[in-house]
Amino acid sequence: MTTLRTEHDVIEKIKEIVLSTFDMDLSEVPSDTPIVDAGLDSMAMLDVIIGLEDAVGHKFNDVSLPKAPTLQDVAQMVLRNVESA
What we know:
85 residues, mainly alpha, Non-ribosomal Peptide Synthetase Peptidyl Carrier Protein, Chain A, 3 helices, 53% helix, globular
């Protein structure tokens, strides 16, 4: 189980999961880039969200995201779920 306390922590974990799962390096991708522009589709993001749930040790209750979410949007969703756990 990983402690994800800040938006930066979550974004770094997302990049780690994407690298290990899809062999895609997002290290140079700005956090305000829509995930689709970074090369991830909605199905790939489901895999990332599952990886994030595994990292924090529980399932998220609210995975609502904007239509074209950015890495920041995903990080904020994770932090909302961590705070409400």
